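Task: sequence design from structure.
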C-alpha cells in the first residue's frame, strides 16, 4: 500500500468524519453542561461512571479503570477527581479490606447535580446528532451511533 492508495484515503476520510462528529457532539454537550450546571463533559462523565459503582465483588473501580472509562490519563483523572472532591461532588475513603486502596464515590450533592445534568446531556446529545444527520458525510455515522445497542 502506498500513501495514495484509495483504501487508505477512504480509511483516512472515514476517520476524519468520525473525529468531526465526535468533536461537534462533545462541543455541543460541553456548552450545554457548562451553561446549565457548571460541569465539563469530562466532569459529567466521571460523575456518571462513578455513580454506577456498587458494593460487592468488582463493584468499585480502580483509578486506572476510571481513567479508561473517561478516556483520560491516570494523572489527569486524579486531578479531575481532586477538583470534584474540592467542590464537594466526590468523596474518597479507604478500602475496608485493603487499607492501601482508596475508593471514590459520588457524594449526595454530586448525585443531585448528576440527576439534574442528565436531561441536559441527553437533550444536547440528541440536538448534536440531529444537526450532524443533516450533513451527508456525517449522516451514516449518526445512523450507526443511533443503531448501537451497548449493554449497560
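Answer:
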Amino acid at each position: 500500500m502506498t500513501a495514495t492508495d484509495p483504501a487508505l484515503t477512504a480509511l483516512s476520510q472515514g476517520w476524519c468524519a468520525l473525529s468531526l462528529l465526535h468533536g461537534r457532539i462533545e462541543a455541543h454537550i460541553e456548552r450545554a453542561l457548562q451553561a446549565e450546571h457548571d460541569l465539563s463533559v469530562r466532569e459529567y462523565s466521571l460523575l456518571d461512571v462513578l455513580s454506577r459503582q456498587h458494593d460487592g465483588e468488582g463493584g468499585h473501580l480502580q483509578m486506572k479503570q476510571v481513567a479508561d472509562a473517561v478516556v483520560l490519563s491516570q494523572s489527569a483523572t486524579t486531578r479531575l477527581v481532586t477538583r470534584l472532591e474540592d467542590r464537594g461532588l466526590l468523596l474518597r475513603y479507604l478500602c475496608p479490606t485493603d487499607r492501601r486502596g482508596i475508593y471514590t464515590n459520588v457524594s449526595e450533592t454530586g448525585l443531585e447535580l448528576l440527576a439534574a445534568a442528565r436531561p441536559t446531556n441527553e437533550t444536547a446529545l440528541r440536538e448534536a446528532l440531529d444537526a450532524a444527520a443533516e450533513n451527508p458525510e456525517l449522516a451514516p455515522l449518526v445512523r450507526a451511533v443511533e443503531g448501537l445497542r451497548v449493554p449497560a
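The first strand starts at residue 90 and ends at 94.
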